[in-house]
Amino acid sequence: MTDRRLTVACAQLGPIQRAEPRGVAVQRMVRLLERAHRRGVEFVVFPELALTTFFPRHYLERIEDADPWFEPAMPSNETAPLFEAARRYGIGFHLGYAELAEEADDIGVVRRRHFNTSILVSPAGEILLKYRKVHLPGHAEFDPRRKVQHLEKRYFEVGNLGFPVIRAPMGEVSGLNMGMMICNDRRWPEAWRVLGLQSVELVALGYNTPSINQEAGGFEAHHLRVFHSHLSIQAGCYQNACFAAATAKAGTEDGCELFGHSIIVNPQGEIIAQAGTWDDELITADCDFGMCALGRRTIFAFDKHRRPEAYRRITDQVGAIDPPVWGE
Ligand code: ING
After folding, report:
1. CA pair distance 75, 50, nearest whole angstrom
2. Is residue 315 domain-resident?
3. Structural domain of residue 49, as residue ranges?
4. Which residue, 71, 155, 160, 84, is CA-closest to 124?
5. How many domains would you assign to the chain?
6. Whole-number Å distance between alpha carbons of 242 and 93
7. Which of 60, 67, 112, 179 is deepest in the core (most CB within 10 A)?
8. What is the rounded CA–CA span in Å between residue 204 and residue 280?
9. Spatial separation of the C-alpha atoms in residues 40 and 35, rounded to whole Å
10. pTM, to two decimals
């Protein structure tokens, strides 16, 4: 069996304040790439919306006033130093950012469109794959009950690229099957399975997750916030026989706390690296993609065991329906 091993890192970011210019965040990320280079890292995963504060917590009456938080081009003058550093060190990377795209919508109207986006970039600086966040949590209008708003449905459209996987060279691995998801996506098993059905081997995942539940929907003990995040990622990896590198933006941004606990998980669902701070921190792991074979050939040999005819509800229904009542 040829050696298909890659040294992967999560480059966790501490807080980015609302007033902090992009250049500062880019320089922090370049520092993390330098540290990654010193450790022989070949692929780095940066967080969701890694260039700015998590701006969906702020309500803006005029949606276009949020445009300064979006990237009309990638790379741009402000993000070029990141691409240059990655090329200099021969490191591939994942980057999450707010994307402003001038493109036709599904009725053919070309307009300015806003997505919560992530890309995979080759060691030579080419964009290998783009993904746009499908599961947008929160709400679209100001919610007076909330202490902190979560307005992703206000500022972003639902992603229109599906959950793609690409096979491309990375480090010494001549062909690696890579895919992405963003933050809330990790809580939906459908997202993992769509990637698993394309033989994904490494899922790059960035997140910005509040450390306390702002939904006025009921009590959730604090320690469960991290547990649910890890549970979702570990289950996703185990049930699809893949690795994941999940990277937080963490710390207190404008008074709002985001948790860290970035992790790298193997196809057995084990956490093989975890961040210990809520600041800029690099965690690394050697990932041997030969490990995907066990699950894929036995318990999760999809072609041998899956029964799509029994799963119709998953794509036919959006919400849950009431079941029939016994005895009626
Ligand atoms: N953040 C959170 C996430 O899914 C959230 C929102 C937290 C939803 C906890 C439900 C429970 O991690 C983003 N940005 O999706």
Report:
1. 14
2. no
3. 5-302
4. 84
5. 1
6. 18
7. 179
8. 18
9. 9
10. 0.97
pLDDT tens digit sequence for 211-220: 987 776 777 8
In a domain, 113, yes or no: yes
Mind spelling out the 3-state secondary structure of 287-303?
Answer: EEHHHHHHHHHCCCCHH
Give the nearest ligand 1 atom to 116 CA. Answer: 14
**Can 304 be counted among the known catalytic residues?**
no
Which residue lies with its CA nearest to atom 3 of ligand 1?
A: 184
| DSSP letter, residue 324 | P
137 lines ligand 1 (CB under 6 A): yes
Evaluate whether residue 310 is within a structural domain. Answer: no
pLDDT tens figures, 65-87: 999 999 999 999 999 999 999 99
The two three-digit tokens of residue 287, written as one number: 């990932």
Pairing of strands 173-182, 202-207: parallel
Question: Residue 279 and residue 31: Cα distance in Å, rounded?
Answer: 13
Q: Is the CB of 183 under 6 A from ligand 1?
A: yes
Q: What does the alpha-carbon distance between residue 272 and residue 308 come to, in Å, rounded to a whole number?
A: 33
CATH label of the domain that carries residue 133:
3.60.110.10
In a domain, 248, yes or no: yes
